[in-house]
Amino acid sequence: MTIETRGITESELPEWLRAMSTGFLMAPTPGEREIELRRSMIDFGRTQGAFDRGRCVATYRAFAQHLSVVGGGTVVSNGITNVSVSATHRRRGLLTRMITDDLTAARDRGDMVASLIAAEYPIYGRYGFGPATWTAQWSIDVPRTGLDPRRAGPAGGGRIDLVDGADVRELGPALHARLEGVRAGVVRRKERWWQAATGEVQLPSMPWTEPFYAVYRSASGEIDGLAVYSADDTWGDAKQPLNTLRVRDLLAVNPAAERALWQFLCSIDWVVTVRSGNRAPDDLLPQYLPDPRAARITTLADMMWLRILDVPRALEARGYAVSAGLVLELRDRMGLAGGRFRLEVSPEGAECVPTAGPADLTMDIGELGALYLGDASPVRLAALGTVEENRPGAAAVAESVFRTPRRPWCPDIF
């Protein structure tokens, strides 16, 4: 029998959740509370499943998302999540069918890009996605940091205050909105995100333990940073505390707030190890410590992947620091956004239009996704052979056009 891929109905949600949970190796049978909470989170018009004789064997969900880009603006993205194919039904083209339908609908709807967090690296490049942000995680050996545990607190008149979840729900969204304005790659957090992060809404499939919350207030009293963390309870011989602190979230809109929060976390009694959680690869964290070697990288990997759906609008939506022009030849095997485009940029804005002129650079649409937020290097991609330099020096021009002083960062898995 033919396996059908299509949108799901609300009555099919329990069966869809069973398939999704199975694919992610979670308990497969959802309870009623789980079903009802998930029902309130899902846009059924953008949720698909594959069905074999009535049983769901693959899942796919998309949702509206806002993504910060270079220059402080945002673009509308088609966020993709909950993608799974049962082990019994691999290599039958089920993901290809679902993602093709979804990306086509997103392009027709006017979404500029599509975004996702790839569980496995090799999957999404063939659908025109490129790794647009990377993540790093550090383990900090607190006794080696060189920080004075007796120091008074932040310099410059700032202060650290402990708050509770209700405070975070009130103060967090405005702080996060400020972060969107200064860092590319940040996805907007909806109210439900803050409710889940503070325990107001709890999914049974995701056990929640209340963390600690600390905010940094500048000398003027404005909240410029937030840290969310938890700690274990580990003791060694002779009653020596050996606790590990794990950072769940740390947002800061300036280096003063970031420095103050990291130094606070490294000064908490009984803590000998701090695990940083998801950070940007060029995070300033190690250099905030007198001995940067106390911070050891434990993870360095791709994070958010982007797929450009509307080349002119996407390239015109981000900012540029230089004045330059390039003709880009973009190959798109899915036929959604390929073509040849002339891009003219300056600090005042950008114009991108189709052209018949000779191409300076040729690349797959996925490479443009990797370049879009300023992370990937055109010169490096040319050396790797994934970008073809048709005009000598064009890769260097593209380097000045696309690269940014700070790497983009996506704080959240979605």
Q: What is the strand content? A: 25-35%
Q: Which structural category fits the helices and strands?
A: alpha+beta
Count of distinct strands: 19
| End-to-end distance | 34 Å
Helix/strand order, N-terminal first:
EHHEEEHEEEEHHEEEHEEEHEEEEHHEH
Quick summary:
With 414 residues, the chain is an alpha+beta fold. The chain is built from ten helices and 19 strands.
Name the descriptors.
414 residues, 7-stranded mixed sheet, 31% strand, globular
Model description:
25% of the residues lie in helices and 31% in strands. Strands 1-2-3-4-5-14-6 form a seven-stranded mixed sheet, with helices on both faces. The chain has a seven-stranded mixed sheet with strand order 8-9-10-11-12-7-13, with helices on both faces. It has a five-stranded mixed sheet with strand order 17-16-15-18-19. It is globular. The protein is of the alpha+beta class and 414 residues long. The protein contains ten helices and 19 strands.
Task: Summarize the topology.
Layout: E1 4-7, H1 13-23, H2 32-41, E2 47-52, E3 55-68, E4 74-85, H3 94-109, E5 113-117, E6 130-131, E7 134-141, E8 159-163, H4 165-182, H5 191-197, E9 212-217, E10 223-231, E11 243-252, H6 255-265, E12 271-275, E13 295-302, E14 304-308, H7 311-317, E15 324-331, E16 339-346, E17 349-354, E18 361-364, H8 365-372, H9 378-384, E19 387-389, H10 394-402
Helix pairs in contact: 4-5
